[in-house]
Amino acid sequence: MKTSAISCKDVKILDGFWKERQKINRNVTLGAVYNRFDDMGKIEAFWCTWRPADGDGKKPYLFWDSDIAKWIEGASYILMHEKNEEIEKKIDYMVAGLEKNMTQDGYFNMYYNLFGLAERFTDRNNHELYCAGHHMEAACAYFEATGKDTYLNLMSRFADLIYKIFVEEESAYFVTPGHPEIELALIKLYRTTGNKKYLDLCSFFIEKRSNNDKDKPLFNDPLYALDNVKIREAKYAEGHCVRLNYLMSGVCDLAYETQDKELLDACKRVFDNATKKRMYITGGQGSTYMGERYTSDWHLPNKTAYAETCASISLGMYARRLELCETNSYYGDIMERTLYNNTLSGVSLDGDSFFYENPLEIRNEDYAVKFYDFIRAGHYIPRVRQKMFGCSCCPPNIVRTVAGIGNYIYSYSAEEDIIFVNQFISSSYKKDGKSVCLSTEFPKNGKISVKAEGFKKIAVRIPYYCKHPEISAEYTVENGYAFIEVGAKLDVEIDLCLKARFVYANTNIYDNIGRVAVMYGPCVYCAETADNESVENFFADTNAKIEVTDGKYGVPGIVISGERQISSDDIYSEEPPKKIAGNLKMIPYFAFANRGEQEMLTYFPIK
What we know:
By secondary structure, this protein is α+β, with helices and mostly antiparallel strands.
């Protein structure tokens, strides 16, 4: 069943886990990211005033536009629920700079406007269309939030120019973006303006990928940007994770708008491969830093997991779009997995620092070499989150994802008059005589109260980890959703009966043979040395009951039983290690690395 998205503008987050995260995002993260971008020169870059005397540190770079645009989009989601002149003033200042420096024919890019308009659209990997796409998304969000149309009109002009150059004149040196993103942005621009030209341009970029004589594979690698196969024939999640997920999100949007089953089938094939054979338990994507990419089925090493924050966010975007194309709880399950694990681990608990990469294992021995790192073959991330990165795509992506969390909760089938509850977040929606209110402490527990009025039915996703939900009304289950008649008014209690559980990886995943992970609801857990004398030598007893405690981070704490193996002082011995019974305290994965440098493990050998 095809459904329509309900905008976060029409959804009010009431309380609970995500309300707290939004407060931190609004009060800390939004300003922290803006201030660091300002320090780097990204705000003034809209005015194209950089000169060599300003230093290379503030010299505009190829993808600066995209970083700022994501911040504007996130700020716009905040503005949808509060009037804030300070935020609007900041955005209007940047838009004014963009308007002043946009060329007569409608082009703008911080880098090219300063350093070579004659070279525009000559290098496929220079992120011009990627930056333009993020601007289009931001412009649509800002217009929806404030009604101000200057930014939207500027981006419409830019889209018109791109159509002219790529479709009508065919004068660019390449045909399709090296870094996809504009595809999904063009659909958003089409939905906002009603201009079908933008839908057609999206279709052009998708149908022409690997189907033209101009494009050359980036880095001589036909897999890197999915240049090896026509989209309609795609089967595998390949290449750079974020590029793949943004591209397929755009393909989903196009399939949705055109009711193209062949395109939708391609989206489902690639998504299945990405999530059933190439995804970490945390929803992380990308098993190597070399190319920030997918590798092969089952290759999911813990220690060197790249699992970029943006890759997890973009997988969630991909899942949400498939969820709108057809009713299947699997897509909401994946969206939920990414949100509560790999996405949230990308930002510190206080909202002020960030991870670009999100490994599943951190060991002291990997950081022991201090002076000869240049000979080390491995790749190791910082052990604590950073204030900002040179490639700073992830922090503003966190800003817009958390601010726009209301975009992922509900959807609606007008044909069947059914409201779908896809994520369990305390929230309300009221429009045109129809209303729904969801109250819950999820993911602390699985108890959910739902009140609805004005709909024929309500459909609530039953997640994969809930085998026997308790629902205080008659219901039928279809495609993983519980369908309930609303009648005149509905007031229903649902319990997903959350419990802690051991989870085993497929034995094709080499790192985790003979090991086990722990989850509670959608949350993956890990253990750090801050709570334990050691995490290295603990063997989990999977036959013992898991202890659930109150916890600190909006979810329960976990304690598992097992044994530690203690050897003698000899470096090698014929005597086996002593086995001492003990416990292991665990915290949610998203909360790791918030207490200084720690050893951390997600999978543990089984007793």
